[in-house]
Amino acid sequence: MSETLPSIGDMLTATVPMARTLNLVFEETTPERAVVRLPDQPDYHNHVGGPHAGAMFTLAESASGAIVLAAFGDQLSRAVPLAVRAEIGYKKLAMGPVTATAALGRPAAEIVAELDAGQRPEFPVTVSITREDGAETGEMTVVWTLRPNS
């Protein structure tokens, strides 16, 4: 009998109330890429009828967290991933559902090597936010760290 482990998306939805509140859909989560969708929901619209900037920030930050867990989940016994800082740019009007696609900004092996050397590595995760028509409506960079457990 095999036991099925929950997906990273299921774990984040269960443990991060904002992801659950916004009904985020984790479409793909691998160490190379995370894709998360924010459905179009009138309760989270802004004054022009698109997704609120705070909802888009949460979407992009959630995608960054998903890829960090996918890439470094095997390191959780010795380090905790933490977001250090984030910067977001809103480029075009977002209307309807939007999707965030995250990618690591440095090779995972390089980051783990720093952790192995007793350092507290920092690394960027870049996120592109797009509309259904493929237009990029925003971009975000979240700098993460793996804080060694004491």
UniProtKB/TrEMBL annotation:
Domain of life where this protein originates: Bacteria
InterPro entries: DUF4442 (IPR027961), HotDog_dom_sf (IPR029069)
Protein's recorded name: DUF4442 domain-containing protein
UniProt-listed Gene3D superfamilies: Hotdog Thioesterase
Pfam family, one: DUF4442
